[in-house]
Amino acid sequence: MKRAVLLRFMVILLLALVVSSAFSYYFIGKNMLQHDMSAMLNTIHAVDYALDYSGNLQEQVEKLHAEAMDASSRITVISSDGTVAADSEVDQVDSMENHLERDEVREAFETGTGSDTRSSESVGESMLYVAARSSNGSYVVRMAIPYTNILDYMISIFPVLLLGTGIAFVVSVILASRFASTITTPLKEISAEMGKVHGARTEFSFKQYKYKELNVIAETTVKMAGEIQAHVEQLEKERKIRQEFFSNASHELKTPITSVRGYAELLDQGFIQDEATKKDFYARILRETDNMTNLINDILMISRLEAKEAEVTFSTVRIGPLLTDVFESLEPIAADYQVMLHKECSPVSIEASAKQMRELIMNLVSNGIKYNHPGGNVWVEVWSENGRLHIRVRDDGCGISKEDQERIFERFYRVDKGRSKKMGGTGLGLSIVKHIVEYYNGSILLESEPGKGSCFTVELPFKKRM
User: Fold this and answer.
1) pLDDT recorded at residue 248
2) What's the count of helices (H) and strands (E) in the chain, helices before strands?
3) What strands, in cross-sheet order, belong to the sheet with 126-133?
4) Where do the H-state alpha helices sit in 195-312?
5) Would you say 390 and 458 are in contact if contact means Cβ atoms under 8 Å apart?
6) Average pLDDT in the 94-109 region?
7) Of the residues 151, 172, 178, 395, which has the fewest C-beta atoms closer than 10 A?
8) Cβ atoms 190, 221 nearer than 8 A
9) In Å, how far are 271, 284, 394 from 277, measured between CA atoms?
């Protein structure tokens, strides 16, 4: 990766240097031309200052040129009518043609200064001409130097610019290599760290890097690994729950089926002759089949709630009348266990399934009755607060230990397994309560202490679940 990044950077850098150098050559050459033209104007002004226009101009020009100027340069003095008054390269100026139509001369007479580049007919080579009007205004003093084009200047500075470009390129490549390392090295380290993952191992040890984006990659990797690990753990937990569920369901169904089969065989083989005993066996068979029916119905209800496929008919459920109906249904059981039921209900309604609301309250209250002691109490309070329905079911029964509280909502989990079976429960009541609460996006809180009873508080939103 580093090699690819560096190669692309070098191509881009080389292209940028070529383009910038081309522009630099052009503008530097042009600036040098302007500098030479300015120097030529200064020389022209010096010559103009030194000339005595009332004397012999040819002799003066030749003397000035010989004493103070380069041999390759040329000085020409042109009068206002275009005739050449003096020239440092031509002795017989009378034979020279009229210069009034020369661009630099005409421009100098009109504006004060002028310039042009062309081939000289007198000396036979390309020249740069710069002219300026004399101080008395009657003449134009012109200076010329050999000149091909602007490339002359560019060629002269090419070695220097080439050297500078080469140094810049080498330094840039070195810096680019170091810069590429600051990116590729962390990526290699991150990749190597991720490559250490085996199986369920998702622990990473990343450094803090110079660039925030690289740290974001590392942090995102850690976050994703954590989410994957959590998902795997959740799947494993659900697998164990399903496995335990099937095992428990099989066990819960096996016991009553065995009992029913035993009673049926005894009746079928004619071992039981006493009518009272027969009736007792029939009653036991009916009771066991009722238990199996209740268990299967509870399992189906939990399955539908978990799959969000429960066929629910929503209506406005008035909690007061519903609670009265639940109390009437549970009064016989409460009387058997010698437990008093108490209720305090505000006039509240919720948009929900009446069947599910009844199931929720029924399971909580029946648990409070069954896990109580003679002379115990179950209190049910219902009220509205902060736009949510609150249902609190409290008892002064046996209570639940901290260890059991963590598993109390699991399917088939019983705090006192022997007592629960004697009471005929399926072990799914609180699991059904939890699933109904989750179905309505609500919450349930358990507070309990062994020997001091338990308190379940359910909160449900009044708005219909979407």
Assistant:
1) 62
2) 11, 12
3) 84-87, 74-79, 139-146, 126-133, 113-119
4) 212-268, 275-306
5) yes
6) 89
7) 178
8) yes
9) 11, 10, 41
More confident residue, 460 or 303: 460
Which residue is associated with the tokens 């009541």? 429
* Gap between the Cα atoms of 52 and 135, Å rounded: 11
Angle at 241 between CA 239 and CA 363, to 5 degrees: 150
Q: What is the pLDDT of residue 118?
A: 80
Residue 458 · residue 443 · CB < 8 Å: yes
Residue pair 68/130 in contact by the 8 Å Cβ criterion: no
The secondary structure of residue 453, as a DSSP letter, is: -
> Cα-flanking dihedrals φ and ψ of residue 73, to 5°?
-90, 165
113 SS3 class? strand
- Spatial neighbors of 214 by CB under 8 A, at least 6 apart, are 183, 186, 187, 190
Predicted confidence (pLDDT) at residue 339 exceeds the cutoff of 90:
yes
Give the 3-state secondary structure of residue 445. strand
Write the pLDDT tens digit of every residue in 57-67: 888 888 888 88
Rounded to whole angstroms, how far apart are CA atoms 208 and 206?
7
Residue 366 to residue 343: CA distance in whole angstroms: 14
Give residue for tokens 């976050």: 223
The SS3 call for residue 420 is helix
Please report which helix (H) or strand (E) contains residue 373, including its range.
none
CB of 371 closer than 8 Å to CB of 346: no
| pLDDT tens per residue, range 15-46 | 776 676 666 666 766 777 788 888 889 988 98
Q: Are 416 and 370 in contact (CB under 8 A)?
A: no
Question: Tell me, what's the pLDDT at 345?
Answer: 92
The position carrying tokens 């989410």 is 227
Q: CA nearest 261: which of 412, 427, 253? A: 253
**pTM for the full predicted model:** 0.46
Mean of the per-residue pLDDT values of the chain: 78
Q: Where are the beta strands (DSSP E) in 69-148?
A: 74-79, 84-87, 113-119, 126-133, 139-146
Q: How far is CA 53 from CA 59, 112, 283, 409, in A?
A: 11, 18, 151, 122
SS3 of residue 14 by DSSP: helix
**pLDDT value for 443:** 92
Scanning the structure block, which residue is given the tokens 């029939």? 282
| pLDDT in the model for residue 236 | 81
Q: Is the pLDDT of residue 401 over 90?
A: no
